[in-house]
Amino acid sequence: MRDETRIREDIVRLARSLYDRGYSVGSAGNISAAVDDGILMTPTNSCLGFLDPARISKLDRDGRHVSGEKPSKEVFLHRAFYETRPQTGAVVHLHSTFATALSCLADTNPDDCVPPLTPYVVMRVGEVKLLPYVRPGDEKMGDMIRELKGRYAAVLLANHGPVVSGRDITSAVYAAEELEEAAKLLVMLRNCQTRLLTTEQVQELKIVFSGY
Hints:
The chain has helices at 4-20, 75-84, 97-104, 119-124, 140-147, 169-188, 199-208; strands at 30-35, 38-41, 57-60, 65-67, 90-93, 128-131, 154-157, 161-166. With 212 residues, it is an alpha+beta fold. The chain has a single domain (4-208), classed as L-fuculose-1-phosphate Aldolase. Strands 4-3-2-1-5-8-7-6 form an 8-stranded mixed β-sheet, with helices on both faces. A hairpin with a 2-residue loop joins strand 1 and strand 2 (38-41).
């Protein structure tokens, strides 16, 4: 049983934290979280730093808008994660600087955007897929995520930014932050000889921290 009032408050608190630390600017980015009878989502054109819990959008299980302000135009990509990854309890989409930069680089590996530089990016984020560019708000976003069949908890939208899912709002935000920090390291270390975690080290982390 999910406490909707608490989840609304958590969305506001964590969104404000992201905004205050520069992970989101202006009206960029959107957050959603599952409740027992649907999904809560930040409203369209809202600023993550100044949300009102009572005005957060609510959609039913079929994606119909039932209360609050109009939901983000990128509702399609959020719903696709809930539909294809049953363990998803929240989705965070940001335009954070370094993850977005990584999504713009021509040599970013589309099948492995974020190689295993640190144990925490393996533990909290996992493998990240780069999806082709489509216009913000285009329903094709949802189609592309559904085509992944739940294999990825996080993706980068080309020339746009990261989308990260988690089992709850806190873990989704933490994973989005970890992805941004890993992307920052990757950009800083470009053209440097880099030591990655080995396949064996990555596998050990996946086994030991499978429920992290």
